[in-house]
Design brief:
This protein is mostly loops. It has one helix and four strands. It has a four-stranded mixed sheet, with no helix packed on it. The longest helix has 6 residues. The two termini are 19 Å apart.
């Protein structure tokens, strides 16, 4: 569900935008690192507009363009907790995976990236954390179902 929302209706792309498969500080708040070929930002390190020397270096909601579904900040800024377990999915394409029915351990998936390289801002990237931990690099996106 998170990945579908991040793609904004434009499948087959590395990031939540469909006009390029590159990332720059013009598009997301992340840590830019030169050796990543698709990180073509002219500035390196943390986003210069938000690196004030005091962690976290977050950007205001809506600072960057929305996805095709009108959602903001799905690449960079803070990672988001997801319901899915951090267990690996079976190989191959998945349609609406919900994660394993019983988790081995309590770790849950985090998506979206922030204190990471461009690779963690990709819509297909996943990380994981124990839900009992707290950090400034993780957030929660609250969503409500659409009411007809």
């Amino acid at each position: 569900e998170w990945e579908k929302a991040a793609r904004g209706g434009a499948g087959g792309h590395r990031f939540p935008w469909s006009d390029t498969d590159n990332i720059t500080h013009d598009r997301a708040n992340y840590y830019s690192y030169a050796p990543v070929a698709y990180d073509t930002s002219l500035t390196r390190g943390y986003h210069p507009a938000f690196d004030d020397g005091v962690m976290p270096y977050t950007s205001p909601v809506g600072y960057f363009a929305p996805t095709g579904y009108g959602l903001y900040d799905l690449a960079g800024n803070v990672s988001e907790w997801c319901w899915d377990s951090s267990e690996l999915y079976p190989a191959g394409s998945q349609i609406d995976p919900r994660g394993p029915t019983s988790a081995i351990g309590s770790y849950r998936a985090n998506r979206g990236g922030f204190f990471a390289l461009a690779a963690y801002c990709r819509v297909a990237a996943r990380d994981s954390s124990d839900p009992s931990s707290a950090t400034v690099t993780l957030g929660l996106r609250s969503l409500l179902p659409v009411v007809p």
